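Quarterly update from the structural biology core.
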Amino acid sequence: MFGGKDHSVTAVRRKDESIEYFYAKKEKKPLLQKLKKVPFLRGNVALIESAGLGARHMQFSGDRYDVMPGEEEEQGPEMSKLQMILGVAVVGVLSFLFGKFVFTLVPVFLAELFSPWIPDKTGQILLETLFKLILLFGYLYFISMMPIIKRVFQYHGSEHKVINCYEAGLELTVENVQKQSRLHYRCGSSFILFTVVVGMFVYFLFPTDPLWLRVLIRILLIPVVIGISFEVLQGTNALRNIPVLKYLGYPGLWLQLLTTKEPKDDMVEVAICSFKKLHEVEKNPEIAKELAHD
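Predicted structure, tokenized:
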């Protein structure tokens, strides 16, 4: 899936080897557009939008993958298209929020278990961060061993390779794309790691005792940490071509070694088709009428 200024497009290879496209136009609501221009707020808005949009694209892919054209399950007549779209978007957002709560609060309770031996604030926050990193890396490592998730990560790698090839000014061929790195500075995987590091520094500004207050503060600080982390991600991307400063984004790139895998040639072909179709739609929105869409 690739997103442009006004549209997003997903390409799916069907069971008969044909490629089908899913299109979604980005709704530019006045209020959201204003919020996207506000530093430290825009990150939260962008993340919630991405979660909802991504869920819709993933559902389309799941419905079409490994199914012959014409054999897709039709939605029941009792569910309107609007209900379906809103339902998938809400599930996507809620899934993200639930995951964020789990990865934020579980390390707090784990660190608290060690409070008899490490009672000071600095030690507790460092321990909390350590558990958060272990939880994050462990989760990504184990789910990457699942065949279906590994396949998703391979397609994720193919997206990065296509973007890197395009930004290098090379022709989008399978051979050229496969030569590119599967890592990219603007990836959301980097953002996840930044929330851990940024969170650690932000937490030093607040008390860790008593436990109930610590938990409450962590919950209230979630949008703050997300907002700051988004700005850090934007900053590291802007500095990626400056010697020395480019290394600020390296930790995020290293995490992508877990969230991306080397894709096969047929996966790269799908990614190239998706990217090219997005460019076609961006230049001529009328093309979108031919694609499956919301």
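The first strand starts at residue 2 and ends at 3.
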